[in-house]
Design a protein that fits this description.
The chain contains 1 helix and 12 strands; from the N terminus they run ββββββββββββα. The radius of gyration is 15 Å and the shape is globular. It is mainly β and about 150 residues long. It has one domain (about 5-150): Sandwich (Jelly Rolls). Strand 2 (about 10-15) and strand 3 form a beta hairpin.
């Protein structure tokens, strides 16, 4: 596995009312998170691959649906992928120096806890194209729905 990636099981407690899950426990993380973001993605969306030179790490959790997380170690070209969410309830901690992203295998709600607050004046976000030869074969789609920024990476 790529150095620095951590897999954290998420325990769900269910009853007739629904469910409860603890998504983040700071004492289990290598670095403290400072901001939490949530996104909704339709099936077929790929977000990323992004990386951060200043060291923003991400803790990913798929709250509903299924996401394929893809991580590329830009130094060694080693890749990591795992489908997380409804069938595999885990969180994945990704050091920001690695290019990382996800594909919505279903409509989903995705949560990102990050170790640096976003600064629009200095976003520290760089891209590797989704169809880079090192990762292209990992996606389930070859015609993803992309943001303008990800399409131009």
């Amino acid at each position: 596995m790529i150095p620095g990636i951590e897999i954290l099981p998420l325990r769900s407690f269910r009853d007739e009312r629904g469910w409860f899950v603890e998504v983040r426990r700071e004492s289990l993380l290598p670095h403290r998170t400072l901001q939490t973001n949530v996104s909704f993605s339709r099936q077929g969306v790929i977000r990323g691959l992004h990386y951060h030179e200043l060291g923003q790490d991400d803790l990913f959790a798929c709250l509903t649906g299924t996401a394929r997380v893809v991580v590329l170690d830009r130094e060694t070209d080693e890749v990591f992928t795992r489908d997380i969410g409804d069938e595999d309830p885990v969180a994945i901690y990704v050091p920001g120096r690695h290019a990382h992203g996800f594909e919505a295998l279903t409509d989903l709600i995705f949560c990102y806890h990050v170790t640096r607050e976003y600064d629009p004046a200095d976003p520290d976000e760089y891209g590797v194209p989704w169809d880079d030869p090192r990762v292209r074969h990992l996606w389930s789609t070859q015609s993803p729905i992309l943001s303008e920024r990800d399409a131009s990476s």
